[in-house]
Amino acid sequence: MAMLNPNVESEYKTERALIAGMIKQEEKAYRQAVTQYQSSMLYLARSIVGEKIADEVVQEAWFSVLKSLPKFQYRSKLKTWMLTIVANEAKSRLRKEKRSSSLESLTENDPGFLSRFTATEHWSSFPVEWEAASPDALLSSDQFAHCLNISIEALPTLQGATLNLKERQGYSLKDICNILDVSESNVRVLLHRARNKLFQVIEHFQITGECCSI
Hints:
The chain is mainly α and 214 residues long. It folds into two domains: 15-96, Rna Polymerase Sigma Factor, Chain: A (Orthogonal Bundle), CATH 1.10.1740; 103-208, Winged helix-like DNA-binding domain superfamily/Winged helix DNA-binding domain (Arc Repressor Mutant, subunit A). The protein is built from eleven helices and no strands. Mean pLDDT is 80; it is low at 119-123 and 126-133.
């Protein structure tokens, strides 16, 4: 039986109890669901469509969740199922606005990426070595935090979504595959490329103190 986040105060202690409450249209259940899942839904929506229409995407996703909830079959966690709906709604909005890129274009060869590795997938040139005190100083820098945030927002659609689900929300590769509807091999490529681009940003900031564009 799936337990809900113990840090969220509520009277619905399990997913089944919360789902039952939402199906019965209990206001307390709705409020708890929003408290429990809204932030994760927004994070994912922003990763795919950006800040401008993320709220609209999440609102539409909630309508779909409430409409489909009586048919929920408990094959995954409620949160995973809800994020799948968010991802589908976000990708649908991109297609409607003709701003969607194919998966192939998001994972195609990037010369800057490939030049860092040899044919045997080892470093062709090693990353810049940080000074002993540098990581902590860097992470505590407001300027660097801002740089990192705008760099994450600038990542290609599925790269940003994959990084968000893995690093911010702690999902497994299998769950990410289900949420974004892509193969595990493509998830690995998307995650690797996103991490590599951010590593380049970190390297550049470490050397120059300035933020570089992705």
